[in-house]
Specification:
The chain is mainly β. A hairpin with a 5-residue loop joins strand 5 and strand 6. The longest helix is centred in the N-terminal third of the chain and has 14 residues. This is PKD domain-containing protein.
Length: about 180
């Protein structure tokens, strides 16, 4: 006598591509956003215009966890358990004239930090314009997103950007004798 046993088919093994795709979907659900731009002088009106040769301070303005991190998440996507850890690794500031610089969070400008509003350089993230004009300043946050799912691990790149228009004028003086 012969017995046949029917066993259910083994579930398909989770591939690295499946695990990474699940991690990407969990990442997309987190609602991470670009930083709000802290710029001084703001340059958004004639009264708050920046000046040629003046130190412009740049910083992440009051960043929330969703703008800076770290953000930790655990979720199940398509039956795959995913763990994520996301944080901003660096901010690249494009100054609108072809120049760029990389910074961390930066230091917010204040009168006390500049001895009453003097032309003092930012301690960690600043720029000096050499020509007057209108510039579009863009801050791009480079995120490092570490993930683990189904026995796989990796890092997902994520970039988020925000821009602001800045006016830079030129101060000129005339010495009159007499």
């Amino acid at each position: 006598m012969t017995f046949l046993w029917w066993l259910p088919a083994a579930p398909d093994a989770v591939t690295r591509a499946d695990a990474e795709a699940a991690a990407r979907r969990v990442l997309a659900s987190l609602g991470l956003t670009a930083i709000d731009l802290g710029i001084h002088p703001r340059g958004d009106t004639v009264d708050r215009m920046g000046y040629v040769g003046w130190h412009t301070w740049l910083w992440a303005e009051s960043p929330s966890d969703r703008q800076w991190g770290p953000v930790e998440a655990r979720a199940t996507d398509s039956g795959i358990s995913v763990s994520l850890s996301a944080r901003v690794a660096e901010v690249t500031w494009e100054m609108g004239n072809g120049d760029s610089l990389a910074c961390q969070r930066g230091t917010a400008w204040s009168e006390s930090r500049t001895q009453g509003g003097r032309n003092v350089a930012s301690p960690d993230c600043g720029y000096v314009y050499a020509e007057d004009g209108r510039y579009t300043v863009t801050a791009t946050s480079e995120w490092a997103v570490d993930w683990t799912a189904a026995g796989y691990t990796g890092t997902l790149p994520l970039t988020l950007s925000r821009s602001a228009d800045v006016m830079v004028g030129e101060l000129q003086s005339v010495a009159v004798g007499g």
